[in-house]
Structures
1.
Amino acid sequence: MACLFLICFCELDYTLSWKAEAQRLCWTYNQLPPDQPERRREILQKLLGDCSDLTFIEPAFHCDYGFNIHTYGLTVINYNCVILDTSPVHIGAGAFIAPGVCLACAGHSVDAAQRAEGISTSAPITLEENVWIGANAVVCGGVTIGKGSVIGAGSVVTHDIPAGVVAAGVPCRPIRPVTDRDRIPPEQLAF
């Protein structure tokens, strides 16, 4: 369930400093040459709340705070990913996140007057184990994607997706289960 929040002025300095630190770390990370994996690892360990040693993020990567992002095993995040982590984002082991994906915990009021007052929403996102999010998909706050599911490219995920399905569309909906027919035959393996 989404929670509404307003940032009171007494909390604004903390919020801005946390965001500024995340922006600084993301900027530094995104400027590093590809032959500095140790330095990249150091930055991810500082930026993310929990960061598996098997977390790999291609630049450019952007997030709001970083400390709300938690990875739990092999996590591959491809180019140009944005994670608006105003709430916790849990990424299970074996997750593959394609280029251009946005995980957006944050939202704003549909009502213009509330939006002008700065009223926002935020809800956590959970990607269970072995989830694959296709290119340019958007996952909205409050969503859990079940173990082993695949989200099609360009989808907008606004509701929970069960385990073990291929889901796609705007809004994203389960299309079919993942089955043994989805296995790539050995003669077709690319590497």
2.
Amino acid sequence: MIYEERYGFDSKTALVLVISGVFVAVAILLPDMSAVVRILTLVLFGGGGLLMLAAALSRKVAMRVDQSGITLGGSPLRYRQTTQHVPLPDIEAVVLWRQHTAANIPWIGILRRADAPPPSPVPTGGRRAMNSTAAALSGAPDERLMQCATAINGWKLDTAELKAALQELAPHVRVDDHR
């Protein structure tokens, strides 16, 4: 069994695209707007909206569970460099949680076994500090999750399908849902 989700259009993505479009339209059509505000609005909302649209249209893999392991797709700007793959024998648990901010973003992370080989590249120095900060900001229940985690943003997670795939492919891997 293979479970796979791809980046695409969900209700949140559609809402952000509509809001971005409204701001861009206002920036273009409102005659009394200062040039600085107009340019900032076009760059932030126009650029951000285009980036989100490109990610949704890319249909790249956001998450995949197969016999080789779990793959978490990377960020749209640096997909190849930020995509992570963890072999099934190295995984202790898949953890789901919500970021406790106004955005209330859902996250998924892979908790690696304590004796698993270190992830590549190994977090050191500044990267370790970034993981601690990211864990604090994301609300991750365990800092180690930030070695391999992503926000569930621009794609939908089917928890039942994820559990079914893991039960078949790696019954030793538990799913901890903290949402």
3.
Amino acid sequence: MSLLDLLTGGTSNQVAEQAGNKFGISKNQVIALLAVATPLIISHLRNKSKDAKEAEALNNALDKDHNGNILNDPSGVEARQAEGGSILDHIFGGQRSDVENHLSQNTGISVDKIGPTLSMLAPVVMGFIGQQKQQNNVGAGGLGDLLGGILGSASNQVQNQESHPINDILRSVMGGETQSSGNPLTDILGSVLGGGSGNGQQNGSGLGSFLGNIFGGK
């Protein structure tokens, strides 16, 4: 399963339907959030994995709790929401509220719902990474290359796909990924989500206006 397969396949649809029903938001908004947040999470984990201790901790977490089974049976995502919140706290630390505010502005999901929704999505993203780790027989030392390879493959894949809302979102996200300052949060929130303007009004190339055109900003 590729990253694009994850975001456009049955797993994301099932998860989006559960989250949408629970929080009263549209399934399309949840899928769009997953399409934006997944590369952000992977990028941040790739950056953290440059530290040997962080890489070992991530490797242990993937071996212990994220073997990819959730992708085959995503019915349990709601029960893992608290776990997902802990995952996000570890990944983003003190920047988590900034991430959630930017994602809220750019997906139209209210800020009080964005955190809980992301918490349901996080175990799915980790499950995907764990599945890729197992399939490629990667240990702690190879996680950085694995995560970078996931993003690189997704970037190449969407460039060759026909225009479709999710493909177009990913194309925009992965375009921001190539403009690296060394801080994935700055790279993606800055280049893709329109920087720190704080008002959600991006120019024509910003993801906020892009999602607004697709989903009506609802």
4.
Amino acid sequence: MSRAGTRLLVAGVGNIFLADDAFGPEVIRALDRRPLPPEVRVRDFGIRGMDLAYELLDGYATAVLVDAAARGHRPGTLSLIEPELPDGARAAAPPEAHGMDPAKVLALAAHLGDGPLPRVLVLACEPEVRPRGDEDILPVLSAPVRDAVGRAVEALHVMVPVLLADPAATPSLSRSEESGVPSSVGLARTGAGDVEDR
């Protein structure tokens, strides 16, 4: 097991200065008010991809990444994605110093580790505001993504006990009308109120 008996990692990823990309860190902040069980390590990784890659090698059974990901849904839609994990034998370039690409982080972790990665799920929120490279700091979430933060906290409180009981289980999100299929690791990086199960 990983540090101090924790078996599950919940990792917020995203840039707090780029509008809806701050979804993951905002969910982690909201979890301070509604903590998950002690067997869960909750951490905001922001844009520190290298730190997350090493953390994924720390013996967890499961990791849930919380992130904004454009998938073509209405802004604020939550999706649960199970990416394909990369083969550790493939070469991996280090993540960008000022960005967090989950696909590259998983590839780097697979490259650095000498064993299998934990099972990885992504709790993703469809962004509404996706800044372009020429825009300055936008430190505010759009309304639909801000509204999704509380639903994501609720979804994690539903998912985590299921994953702690059985890391191979397929947890569902809280709304049955919002469903989908597992997705590959190629997550679009960039934001009402739907939830999409995997």
